[in-house]
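Q: Predict the bound structure with 6-hydroxymethylpterin-diphosphate.
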Amino acid sequence: MTAGGDRSRETIARQRLPKGGRWRVRGREIPLDRPIVVGILNLTPDSFSDGGRFDDPVRAVAHAEEMLAAGADVIDVGGESTRPQGARPVSAAEELSRILPVVRTLARRFPDAAISVDTVKSEVAEAALGEGARIVNDVSGFRLDPDMAKICGAAKCGVVLMHSRGNVSTMATYDHAVYDDVIEGVRGELAQSLAMALAAEIEPQAIVLDPGIGFAKRSEHSLAMLAGIPRLLEMGHDLMVGASRKRFVGELTGVERADERVHGSVGAIVAALMLGARLFRVHDVAASRQALDVAWAVLQARSE
Ligand code: HH2
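A: Predicted complex:
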């Protein structure tokens, strides 16, 4: 064993697991004393891996039910795709017509689940919160709508501030993927999102950060973000990771079809869990739940 190997083993042994906090999400607290699985429900015709599969409300609710039965803690409902190729922005009215009936049904039928809305528009967030959503997942980290922070502060909902650059059409492309130091760059820009949230009196315990895997990030940037999770945790908030079926998994594994990337996606979230992330936004709930629970049990046994 080399001196370098000894040193890295020591570093890993010294690393403390973050204490299990609680995520405040509008009248409820989600304990973060185990990995939290956020099931993706895209009500879009054009999402990169599941576009068109759940854009009918009946199928969407059935899929949410399956994900909850498979162990999802949160259902993240989205009505606008940010796909890398030709994402088409939709109006607030169109987004609302896609998501509101489903949010309403899910909130009533599954009162124990927390419903999250994946939107960059305050009008959509406000309406979804009015129908029972408890979390706003803003992939622009409050950059694109000046009223988003205010709406979330007033509603006392949970928020996910994800890092991205550009607008809905460009944020998942490589147009803005230029960094001197990707982790410092993302930390600096997430700090601006955080400042907007705190200025709107959103409680720190309501805020989860997300490095935005694949958003203005080439594969090497996404890998650096995952490896850099301990440095992102220094910002003082729990982390959500959305690696599910993304391009970097395809590039690493040579698997072209997004819906065949489950094994690589699970590898990514298990690594992220080991490095300190607690929340995972996934398409494949059963595989992710099983893998995270086993990896978590190993981590718990190590820290006892
Ligand atoms: N990724 C996507 C959408 N929303 N939200 C968070 N917090 N983190 C992510 O990594 C993230 C996200 C993109 O994935 P998907 O919803 O499957 O695709 P599309 O944007 O094409 O609908």
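A: The longest strand covers residues 36-42.
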